[in-house]
Amino acid sequence: MKNRTTSIDDHLLASPSQCEERIRVFQRKLYIRAKQDKSFKAFSLYGKLCEDITLIEAYRRVKSNYSKGVGVDGQSFEDIEKQGLKPFLEAIQQDLVQGIYKSKAVKQVLIPKEKKGDFRKLGIPTIRDRVVQMAVKLLIEPLWESEFCKTSYGFRPKRGAKQAIKQVKQNIYDGHQFVYDADLSKYFDTIPHNKLFVLLKKRLVDKGILSLIHQWLTAPVRLPNGKLLASTAGSPQGGVISPLLSNIYLHAFDEIVNDPKGKFARANIRMVRYADDFLLMGKWYFSKDILHYIDRIMDNMGLTLNKEKTKLLHSCRSSLFFLGFEFRNIKSKFGWNTKNYTNVRPSMKSRSKLFTQLRELLSKRRHWRIEWIVWKVNELLIGWLNYFSISKVTHIWETIKIIKKHLDYKLFKWMKSKGRKAHRKLRQRPYANLVHFYGLLDIEKYARLKTHAKAQ
Predict the structure, then answer these.
(1) According to the UniProt entry, what is the EC number of this protein (predicted)?
(2) Model's pTM, two decimal places?
(3) Rounded to whole angstroms, how far apart are CA atoms 8 and 19?
(4) Collapsing DSSP states into helix, strand and coil, what is residue 418?
(5) Separation of alpha carbons 302 and 195, rounded Å
(6) pLDDT tens digit string along 101-137?
(7) Inter-residue contact 92 to 101 (CB < 8 Å)
(8) What are phi and psi of 31, to 5 degrees?
């Protein structure tokens, strides 16, 4: 295979939908095989990795779904397509076939957290490495999707934060109101490589694929000051394959919690996990034995719980914050109904983030025309509403009224800063006028239409 000549098929390059369909067929077959045989191990995926359809589909997904940031080589998608996509993919294919592919260093970007002086480390691989990572992810993901637990929602096909929020609310209604709200400290930076590979080899024995994963995990990190730092643990948060690897590692914990004969089952504890954020929800107080048991599991896995952020609470006595939502227990507004119910709404922190984005957008673009501002504000509002509007679960109408008042004030200040006579009439009711005359999103109408569509 190492002497084989390669060439990307022009027909496949021109018809990405054909590649997508063939990849899905392959994934479905692999998923069914792994689901039916719990001892099944994949040992011959490397040849599939080198095929045209895999690399073409991988490039398409990386470009459409992931960050456009450049890696250490400074190469962007525009540069690649200007020089020719076919030569770019053929070079990758040739290196893989000949067994000479080598990953490059990961560019580290520091994202400030709310706590001053604290940063989230984001690792950005080169586009070349991202394409190969996506190709490997497409091939190996069905192996673990066949055994992942239903309590895991993050970074999985057809699952996400909305399903997790629905399950948390259902658990509360079922009486699981004692909550262990866990926070893992620097999870993506501390995953032990040796223990991760033990789990990988339970389903994957293809040495070529395992070698590629080892390269990505051990690739040096280029710090913002230009120095290279060796990688001895963790999986770069920002890599295409990192979310899957993180789920594979925490799946071991999922299995312990969901074991029908285990300690958690005997204590009637349910779990909801989204990536490295998870809730353990029980009907009674968490005993010291259970709490020590959780600590022992984390120690054995080489992970650390952030004691400052990890807490125990009762959902009827204090608010629960999870994935940007607030769960609170409130009394019914109807006099004949004396029961309390669980109200789910966007958290204050999520609302503040939206206000910060709106402020930055309007303060830095005072010279823009109204049409451009409306387009950018609509883009921001639609993304926010798409996430927080969950049919029959969230109550966002009070939050929407607050957003409308805030947006009205910010648009008034923006128009006033431009100082044009043409804007004087618009400034009287800026939000309503821009909705009526310039197509600004009516957020209340949009939320109602979206909720109604989901309810059907």
Answers:
(1) 2.7.7.49
(2) 0.90
(3) 12
(4) helix
(5) 9
(6) 999 999 998 888 766 667 888 899 999 999 999 999 9
(7) yes
(8) -60, -45
